[in-house]
């Protein structure tokens, strides 16, 4: 007797201990695996504890009602939809189920953050970007006081998560280098708290003046550090509602700085290399610059 001779329910139970990525690959091995992958049992373990509330919030913002969509979809369809990402909060947040690790990744757009002087077109420009995870990025033209901050209420399963900012720096040789420079490092702060009184915080600096020339005009990720989501009293796997406070600061007003692009803040499981990648790439039109803000 070989593995393919087992009942479909048994094969589905075995597949449920793998990952969504493995399940889709196993469906191509033989007809027995393909039949087993179509059973809901094979996909139930992939779903996080808060998947129903996340799907309801995402689908409620669409034309079709969430209850109707949930009844018409199998567990496989729900998992595959979540691996592509659920948009929440009118498109300012993204909830992603990672295909290779079964972990949960939360992404917050810069458009949902408090950006000092962000509504003044002399200092900041909000640009459409095909390489953004949300389609819009914040472009710092020129400013003395740089501050991006806010609080983010979200749910996460217990565990360790890495806070990652997605940034891009323009080439200082392409603009007025004497005016738009970075003499001091940026300070990144992340802290998280929950209703149980459990807190976790991390802080790190990034010196933009030390970025190699080959890193200009390309998006890169800056990991601030790891935060811990402690398990609740009920179970060790149930997602918890947490409040994440974040900030980027460089408030030395003795000089002007600019040329920074900010896309989003991501919380993903520590040690996970699976990133939430945009589908398209920019045409690099940002290299064709106009009048740089107040100058």
Write a short abstract of this structure.
This protein is an alpha+beta fold and about 300 residues long. The chain is built from 7 helices and 13 strands.
Descriptive account of the structure:
Helix content is 18%, strand content 33%. It is of the alpha+beta class and 295 residues long. Helix 1 crosses helix 3 and helix 5 packs across helix 6. The longest helix is centred in the N-terminal third of the chain and has 10 residues. The chain is elongated and about 75 Å long. The C terminus is likely disordered.
Secondary structure topology:
Layout: H1 8-15, H2 20-26, H3 31-37, H4 41-44, H5 51-60, H6 66-72, H7 75-84, E1 86-88, E2 93-97, E3 104-109, E4 114-115, E5 124-128, E6 136-140, E7 146-156, E8 159-169, E9 186-194, E10 199-206, E11 220-229, E12 240-250, E13 260-269
Antiparallel strand pairs: 1-2, 2-3, 3-13, 4-7, 5-6, 6-13, 7-12, 8-11, 8-13, 9-10, 9-12
Helix pairs in contact: 1-3, 5-6
User: Which percent band covers the strand fraction?
Assistant: 25-35%
Whole-angstrom Rg: 22 Å
Kindly state the mean pLDDT as a whole number? 83
How many runs of DSSP E, i.e. beta strands? 13
Major sheet details: 8 strands, antiparallel
N-end to C-end Cα span: 77 Å
- The ordered string of helix (H) and strand (E) elements is HHHHHHHEEEEEEEEEEEEE
